[in-house]
Design goal:
Elements lengths: L15 E7 L2 H13 L10 E9 L4 H14 L3 E11 L4 E6 L3 H14 L4 E2 L9 E5 L4 H11 L7 E4 L1 E8 L6 E9 L3
Antiparallel strand pairs: 1-2, 1-8, 2-5, 3-4, 3-7, 4-6, 8-9
Helix pairs in contact: 2-3
Amino acid sequence: MVDSATLHDDQFGHSVYAVVLMAPQDQVQMVSKLRETIKLTRAMPPAHLTVRGTFYRIVDLGDVDRRIAGVATTARPFRVEFGDQTESNEGRNRSVAVKISEPLRRLNADLERVINPVSRDAYGASAFDPHLTVYMDASPEQIAKGRVLCGFLDLGPGFLATSMSLIGRVGPAYGGRWVEVKRYRFGV
């Protein structure tokens, strides 16, 4: 396991990567507004569900692109269903749980199968724990505000996933930013 927060950008301009299902724009806006209100400083991608967690040390971005595209051609749109909000790391992280459906489990397994041989996992091997992160690494003041605001956060029952995105972080966790590298429509 490495400290992914401090990894340097690779030859493709990203320090780490993930494959995610982006939430719809209304959910993205709600989560972004909450993050802005509590003045979150850690770089976080827009509201999303990670289906293949943080990886790095890839040799050929084109190869990773082809591998993900191959998985996308066999995937079909499916519903992402939300569960309850949860806290971890002494309240510093807040998430909305996601129910593991068969299409979601299969998508994660397929991405693990094709990405693992050509990358390093930043956090080590762990069980798939799907969730939508509202915020992470919050300070005590941010936690207090975040808990109140999360009481009013209603993202609905979930969303329809029709594509996935390869995202990369440019720079470190603090001071960097996440960008979409490429989007892959399901079944195309």
